[in-house]
Amino acid sequence: AQSVTQPDIHITVSEGASLELRCNYSYGATPYLFWYVQSPGQGLQLLLKYFSGDTLVQGIKGFEAEFKRSQSSFNLRKPSVHWSDAAEYFCAVVNYNQGGKLIFGQGTELSVKP
Amino acid sequence: EAQVTQNPRYLITVTGKKLTVTCSQNMNHEYMSWYRQDPGLGLRQIYYSMNVEVTDKGDVPEGYKVSRKEKRNFPLILESPSPNQTSLYFCASSPSRFPSSNQPQHFGDGTRLSIL
Questions:
Q1: What is the DSSP code (8-state) at residue B18?
Q2: How many whole angstroms separate alpha carbon A74 and alpha carbon A83?
Q3: B44:A44 CB<8 A
Q4: Under an 8 A CB cutoff, do A100 and B100 touch?
Q5: Residue B72 — very low, low, confident or very high, per pLDDT cuts 50/70/90?
Q6: Distance between alpha carbon A79 and the CA centroid of its chain, in Å?
Q7: Calpha distance B12→A111 (Å, rounded)
Q8: Closest partner CB to B99 (pick from A42, A100, A106)
Q9: Comparing C-alpha atoms, which of A60, A73, A75 is closest to residue A31?
Q10: Residues 6+ positions from B43 with CB-CB distance below 8 Å
Q11: Sequential DSSP letters for A41-73
Q12: Alpha-carbon gap: A18 to the closest alpha carbon of chain B (Å)
């Protein structure tokens, strides 16, 4: 069955430090992958997406993600974290065989230390 | 401005009292869906609709109903709410059932339901 795993439930980094959030997927065909961010009390905002082509994807707010088929991973990175990046981050894959459903990981909550 | 609007944003109610959460999109999207978000579980799809009068179950449809009488609206109905339906709910829409590189799903701001 298709699934998405985010191994880290909660991560704390210092402001200015680099960040990597992990995402592993299980999907038989070519996956279409997304990262969403949810700030407290807010909805989901799309950070970036991978459909095909270049495996290093640039997104908004200085984020990037790299698709690695051999590792079934789509990790999110940012070189220098800002306090405003504190939020919950969700990785997702779209399942075209099930009505275009997004399959989400469990989420990773990011805290940023001053 | 393109948006998905959910109402209410917050609701506290009691077991068994029917409620409806509305969802409206202004982008003429064909595809709409409902998700619930629970700690440690991420978001799970409840129902989806590929067009007017076309709806289907997602992963966790028990206890919910939906309707799609108009393209822009996709209400979520809890006929007899129970405490296990306490959750954060999101409505989403996209131009078609196949999110594409240029047309991902748009999400509403969420509705937090508490069923006592």
A1: -
A2: 23
A3: no
A4: no
A5: very high
A6: 15
A7: 29
A8: A100
A9: A73
A10: A44, A90, A92, A102, A104, B35, B36, B37, B90
A11: T--EEEEEEE-SS-SEEE-GGG-EEEEEGGGTE
A12: 24
- Dump pLDDT digits (tens) for A85-114: 999 999 999 877 766 788 999 999 999 999
pLDDT for position B99:
63
Count of CB contacts below 8 A, A vs B? Answer: 65
Inspect the interface and report whether the beta carbons of B101 and A49 lie closer than 8 Å.
yes
Any CB–CB contact under 8 A between A24 and chain B?
A: no
Instruction: Give me the residue label for tokens 């960040």.
Output: A19
Q: Which of A114, A77, A102, A89 is nearest to A9 (CA)?
A: A89
| Residues of chain A with C-beta less than 8 angstroms from the C-beta of B33 | 99-101
Q: With CA atoms as reference, report the closest residue to A6 among A96, A103, A83, A80.
A: A103
